[in-house]
Hints:
- With 174 residues, this protein is α+β, with helices and mostly antiparallel strands.
- Helix content is 35%, strand content 25%.
- The protein has helices spanning 2-16, 26-36, 38-44, 61-77, 136-146; strands at residues 22-25, 47-50, 56-59, 86-94, 97-104, 150-155, 161-168.
- The strands form two sheets. The chain has a five-stranded mixed β-sheet with strand order 2-4-5-7-6. Strands 1-3 form a two-stranded antiparallel sheet.
- Strand 4 and strand 5 form a beta hairpin.
Amino acid sequence: MQSLIKNLLNYxxxxxxxxxxxxxxxxxxxxxSLIQLNEKIQERQAQIILEEPLxxxxxxxxILVQVITNLLSNAIKFVTPNHSPQIRVYITQKExxxxxxxxxxxxxxxxQYKEQIFEVFKRLHGNDLYPGNGIGLAIVSKxxxxxxxxxxxxxxxxxxxxFWIELPSFxxxx
Length: 174
């Protein structure tokens, strides 16, 4: 219940408060997320490969950390029992945007649910095997919209998922 209330408050704050967008060091945001998830990473013996370079993006640092944390947390959680999560984090560049990919070896998502999973309280699995409250990806959706970004997922059932977020790249004025 405490987790549910915390997540609902986070969702509400992202929806209602003013968000300051400024240059963010992507590597720093990812490292903060990894620190927050360290216990889960150790517990599940997750292997996370972080590919560089990781440039600067235009975002809100705290909200970006929350988005990345939610995506990595799901990549750690939604793996077949008795399998260690294998996660690859990398970027691709599209013109003036940076796309951050979080690729996993998880259980995957049936194609008919790829859009619904970003809605509040939409869960595809029972709490017994994959605990949660169905707000994490809704926070990702709301946060990315508020930061002028995009988000999505590529996935196949039993073949893992590739979640992505896209934000404007930081360009120094010459």
